[in-house]
Each structure stands twice: as structure tokens, then as C-alpha cells.
Amino acid sequence: MSSIPSTAKAESFDDFYTEVKEIEKRDSVLTPKQQIERLLRPGSTYFNLNPFEVLQVECDATIEEIKKKYRRLSILVHPDKNIDDSERAQQAFEIVNRSWKILENEDTRKKCLDVYQEAKERTDHMIEQKRKKFKKDGRLAEGIPEDDPVKYKHAVYVMTMKLFADMERKRQHLETRDMEERKRKREAEIEQEEQMSFEKEWAKNFEESRQNRVDSWKTFQSGGKEKKKKKIMGFKPPKPKPESR
User: What is the value of pTM for the model shown?
Assistant: First the structure.
């Protein structure tokens, strides 16, 4: 068990809650340019896998709260509102739209919430293992970093992003494997089609050549008999000469 007094924990949590609210307030007034930068920053490919992160809402936010934040963000990053940076604004706008569609759908939102739940469970398990190690090493009185609510929230956040990234890598792997399988299947179909075409052409050519061979043989046979008949009919025995005395 943690050695931090409950009063200290309460104060720590209050400080943490205040800090979170300050961050939310700061982010809520980000300029369009800052929002575009946030959504397209280095590493955003993985950050943006988490729709709650994209829309800057907590995972327990209501659908109405999410919708309200989506509308605000979509207006801020809309290409028509950012003529001087319309291409990047369009990218940011599509990211926001995609995140809203994920959270708007009850099934996909539930899957995202399941990721958060698993992240929390894994983090709690990691903390428990760390606590056991501290106890074994006689360092339990020191407490562990994740006893601090801010650090605990960060640990859950990191685990959440890791799970989203793992899911995306798995999806890409399955997609690549599926594409390769379909490619192999199509290649096999093409090979089979070519083989059938070859066999059909071969059979056609064989039939044509067979008929030609039959015709040639008939012609040969017919020609041979004519020659033989002509030889027989053309034979004339010599006339007998009269005897002279």
C-alpha cells in the first residue's frame, strides 16, 4: 500500500486537477495555426490514432460534449478559414472529421473506450509489479512515481498510445498479408487462365493439323494410284514381225 497520507493525496490530486483544467483552457483557445501544427506535428501519425486525443476530450466525455468540441475544431482548421495554408488545413480537417466519425459511432467509440480500459489495467498491473519489487528491496516507504496522480495519468496515457499504435501495426500487417494473399490468388488464376488458353489453342491447332494430315494423306494416296494406273494403261506390247524365208 502507498505510504502517502490521504491528505497529501487529496492535495496532490487537487493540484493535478487544476493543472489539467489549465491545459484544457489553454488548448481551447489555440489559434487555427496552432491547432493545425498540433495535428500535423512530428509523430502525429500515431498520436492521431487516438480520436479522444485529436478532439482534445476526455474518454468519459458525453457524445454531446464530443460533438461540441468537434464542431469548434472543424471550424478552426477548415481550409476556407486558412487560405494561406489550405493544404495543411485540409489534412488537419480530415483528421478531425475521421476522429469524430469514430466517436460518433457507438461501436467504434466502445472499442476506443476498451483500449483505455485495457491501458489502465496494464498500467495498474505494472504499478503492482513495481510495488512488489520495491517491497522486496525494502524501498516501499519511498513510494513509486505513479503514486503521483499526474504521473499515473501520464503512464496511462503512454500505455494508451502504445495500444493504439500496436492495433494500427497489426491492422497494417493484416492488410498487407491480405493484399499479398489476394495477389497470389490472382496470379494463380491468371496462370490457370493462360494454361487453359494454351491447351485450347493447342487442341485447335492439333485438330487443324490433323485434318491437314488426313487431306495430305488422301491426296498422296490418290496421286499414287493414278500414277500406277497410268503406267499399266500406258504399256503397249511390241507388234510381232513377219517371218522371212
Answer: 0.60
